[in-house]
């Protein structure tokens, strides 16, 4: 099993799930700051006003804001070559509309990048990871307004210029294909009153939803162009939530339904961002569903000129699809489906499918022909802290090991895989439930769902396992 020399081993996080530091450094409100929660048993709520008696997990998260030096040292101890993270837009432009950026926010990320580079860790930076200044949602309905494209591009240009000599790998939008889901799926982000996060309108109006997505695709392409102009060495990627789909039976109707869902959810956004044009199948979808969006005169040129340099994706599980029949369903990352009788489920009902990762890598490599990077892959589980402050998470080691084995097979197949940042190097608040109980990390954070804890960092067994994996470039698993 051989990974290429210089393979980017590391871990991935999101600012709204780890940073905390709510309103510190003159930060403005983000959307995530308005989402309550903390337990699977209690529905999360979106509140227009921050309520004094309500618990908002993102306000403190796991306090990376004050612990980043300690955390990055731990990443370096594991041997990380890369750290995927995101920037909080409202730290840079508190409302999103200011003419000048917030220097305190810029300085915070300067310090983080300096700490990474000191330890030989390459930052991979996502510009927008399911969050934006709350003001832009409240006043413009987010990307439903073309005006927000202008604000995003100004933010992106500011970031590219500031960190020109510190960051080379960028990602524009996290799991951009989230916008292809109907509003009923918004519950995966804990929103139960039909409000939205960042890409879509508060109501599930197909025209507004796909208009907003068009604006996001334009914003991404303009950001790619800006990054290349500011520093020709910049590499900018897309990021897709890939949910691998299989037909539940060998019925041709199941196969056609797989193809339709693949096109709509897994393929569409990547096709636009890699090839720079709207695919024929999506034009037909718009026609069949009476979707009419406003495409401005130069938009197609912008998309064609703003193609990404590499393709990144998340992979947690797979699902089956059935056109007919009453089958047991399964849960998943953004998109659920029909239960696969050949797979086991995680504690949260996600189907564990390592071989599906090899299949997916080959599919993407054949489809796009550009470098690939897996930027999210991990297991959410309840970890037990023993009396002697140990965490024996063999289940997580097994999950990661099995997926890395299949990655190696894909590399042997000829896949151009350049990096793997597992989710997540440290425990963080879950984006789907807002709780700490669902832990992904290789490093345990002593914090509970109620916000109590001393935030101490404790190495799990998986920490030491991943360290050996990286040291051997994936040969010792």
Automatic annotation (TrEMBL):
<protein>
    <submittedName>
        <fullName>Glycoside hydrolase family 1 protein</fullName>
        <ecNumber>3.2.1.-</ecNumber>
    </submittedName>
</protein>
<dbReference type="InterPro" id="IPR017853">
    <property type="entry name" value="GH"/>
</dbReference>
<dbReference type="Pfam" id="PF00232">
    <property type="entry name" value="Glyco_hydro_1"/>
</dbReference>
<dbReference type="InterPro" id="IPR033132">
    <property type="entry name" value="GH_1_N_CS"/>
</dbReference>
<keyword id="KW-0378">Hydrolase</keyword>
<dbReference type="InterPro" id="IPR001360">
    <property type="entry name" value="Glyco_hydro_1"/>
</dbReference>
<dbReference type="GO" id="GO:0016798">
    <property type="term" value="F:hydrolase activity, acting on glycosyl bonds"/>
</dbReference>
<keyword id="KW-0326">Glycosidase</keyword>
<comment type="similarity">
    <text>Belongs to the glycosyl hydrolase 1 family.</text>
</comment>
């Amino acid at each position: 099993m051989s990974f290429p020399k210089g393979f980017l081993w590391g871990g991935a996080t999101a600012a709204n799930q780890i940073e905390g530091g709510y309103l510190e450094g003159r930060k403005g409100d983000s959307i995530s700051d308005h989402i309550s929660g903390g337990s699977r048993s209690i529905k999360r709520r979106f509140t227009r006003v921050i309520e004094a008696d309500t618990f908002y997990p993102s306000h403190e998260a796991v306090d990376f804001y004050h612990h980043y030096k300690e955390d990055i040292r731990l990443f370096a101890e594991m041997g990380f070559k890369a750290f995927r993270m995101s920037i909080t837009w409202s730290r840079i432009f508190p409302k999103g509309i200011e003419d000048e950026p917030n220097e305190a926010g810029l300085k915070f990320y300067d310090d983080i990048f300096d700490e990474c580079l000191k330890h030989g860790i390459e930052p991979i930076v996502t510009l927008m990871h399911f969050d934006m200044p709350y003001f832009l949602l409240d006043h413009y309905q987010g990307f439903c307004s073309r005006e927000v494209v202008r604000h995003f591009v100004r933010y992106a240009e500011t970031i590219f210029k500031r960190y020109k000599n510190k960051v080379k790998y960028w990602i524009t939008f996290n799991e951009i294909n989230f916008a292809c889901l109907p509003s009923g799926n918004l519950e995966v982000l804990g929103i139960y009153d039909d409000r939205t996060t960042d890409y879509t309108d508060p109501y599930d109006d197909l025209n507004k939803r796909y208009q907003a997505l068009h604006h996001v695709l334009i914003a991404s392409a303009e950001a790619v162009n800006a990054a290349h102009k500011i520093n020709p060495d910049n590499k900018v990627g897309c990021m897709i939530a890939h949910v691998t789909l299989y037909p539940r039976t060998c019925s041709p109707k199941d196969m056609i339904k797989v193809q339709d869902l693949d096109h709509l959810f897994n393929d569409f956004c990547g096709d636009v961002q890699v090839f720079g044009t709207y695919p024929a199948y999506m034009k037909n979808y718009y026609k069949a569903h009476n979707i009419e969006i406003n495409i401005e005169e130069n938009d197609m040129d912008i998309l064609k000129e703003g193609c990404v340099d590499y393709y990144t994706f998340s992979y947690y599980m797979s699902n089956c699809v059935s056109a007919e029949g009453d089958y047991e369903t399964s849960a998943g990352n953004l998109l659920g489906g029909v239960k696969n009788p050949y797979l086991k489920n995680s504690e949260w009902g996600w189907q564990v499918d390592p071989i599906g990762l090899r299949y997916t890598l080959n599919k993407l490599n054949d489809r796009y022909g550009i470098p690939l990077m897996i930027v999210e892959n991990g297991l959410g589980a309840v970890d037990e802290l023993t009396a002697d402050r140990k965490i024996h998470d063999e289940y997580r080691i097994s999950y990661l090991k099995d997926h890395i084995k299949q990655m190696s097979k894909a590399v042997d197949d000829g896949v151009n895989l350049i990096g793997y940042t597992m989710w997540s190097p440290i425990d963080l608040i879950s984006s789907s439930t807002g709780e700490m109980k669902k832990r992904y990390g290789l490093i345990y954070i002593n914090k509970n769902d109620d916000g109590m804890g001393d935030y101490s960092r404790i190495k799990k067994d998986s920490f030491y396992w991943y360290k050996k994996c990286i040291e051997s470039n994936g040969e010792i698993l």
